[in-house]
Amino acid sequence: MSLSAPPSPVVPSFAWAKALAHPATEFAQTPLTRLAGEIPDGLRGTLYRNGPARLERGGWPVGHWFDGDGAILRVQFAEGEALATYRYVQSAGFQDEEAADQYLYRGYGSFAPGSLWQRWQSQVKNAANTSVLALPDRLLALWEGGLPHGLNLETLETYGIDTLGTLRPNDAFSAHPKRHPRTGEIFNVGVIAGGRPVLQIYRCDPNGHVKDTKRIDLNGIPLIHDFALADRYLVFCVSPVRLNPLPAVFGLQTFSEALQWQPKWGTQIIVVEADSLEVLAWEQAEPWYQWHFGHSVLHANDTIGLDLVRYADFATNQQLKEVATGQISTPAEAQLWHYHIDPHSGKILEEHCAVDRHCEFPVAYAPQGCPNNEPALTYLNVHRTTPTPLGEFFDAVAQFNPHTETLTLANPGPGYYPSEAIPVQDSHNPSQHWVITVVYNSHDHRSEVWIYDGNAFGTAPIVQFALPVVIPHSFHGTWHG
């Protein structure tokens, strides 16, 4: 087969895929049309979301959902009004390809059209498409394999690569930073594969300036997407996925294809002290894979409780690749699991499946004044029906209450596809919270912003707005009050 033959284009066999069939269109700040309800008086602040917005260029689709060019949605709530802006992150790679109207770079699971020699020489594009971190003076667009991009908090103008004061060009600042609820410090990580692979840990001040770093040698080159922060401890669960580097380096395989499931490694549990960044424990457990962690807590007896969405293996990577084609044929289900860990040995003291239903994108919400050891609510994306229909996308949001062990669905009905849910505390009433999600309405081919009452979850949204363009399914967001 010719290396210049394009892959198959997006074919929207399912209603959810229509949101990905065409590149998204930017828009400047626009008042949103209210479809129903009223904004609560205490909902004041800004929602930011990031995700792959362009999955095709010059007739050539990306080879993996992770490779779409990132675009940021900003929705500001104030005085009963919602104002939205949507802009692509103007990375150097995006600007080069925009000018050429063709792909020029390789990605996580994609090659640009060309010969094997061109593949080998091509650089990796920072897609800036995975998550966001709101700092006091700027927004960071985050991506797994490189440095963040700084953006204007209001206009979303791209400033360029952001070094956070000390980062170097080959460093990586990953997509799931954690802000300490007491100190405001920000922790993050990056896997650096050049030479001996290391996990680089960052501790930043509340403004995002790097204060301290620590390098930990790794066994092979793993895929570490997320981690847990439990007060004095950082916890990493390094699943047994390892990169076979030579085929990826020489362009024989994409990075995605070169990642291999090697269960012999087990899942390595690494516990790091947050203040010193010193390794306290390194233990091996049975193999599993996770993208995301949910709630984490340090109990009064100095043990750690944490939640994660657990897969049996790495088939999820193939399924996510298929999302970009609009046709999912690979089953890959995950459940929310709870772990109880000894931070001084890394041993699992107790584990159980908390939500025995396919789910993803866990977001924890602990009400203000909640004791440190009190269970927090967790919001998840799920399917409306079980068993999970193969080929379908998440089409509901659920609230899990660990205290009552109940899962409550907000069921929008068929043909509606909500993104990751972002819980927000009411600015007037600390005991009240709201849950915001961006929904693709396939019936009207329209993206909408829905707000649920977190204290009465499972009822209809209290307010709905129409966005002026379709926002392709996105990954992660944040709230900036």
Helical segment tally? 5
Residue share in helix: under 10%
The radius of gyration over CA amounts to: 21 Å
Main sheet: strands, sense, barrel: 6 strands, antiparallel
* Number of E-type strands: 35
Query: Could you list the spans in which at least 5 consecutive residues all have pLDDT below 50?
Result: none
Oligomer: single chain
Supply the helix-strand structural class: mainly beta
State the separation between the terminal residues, measured CA to CA.
Answer: 53 Å
User: Roughly what is the average pLDDT, rounded to an integer?
Assistant: 95
Percent of residues in beta strands? 35-45%
Which outline best applies? globular
Q: Domains counted in the coordinates: how many?
A: 1
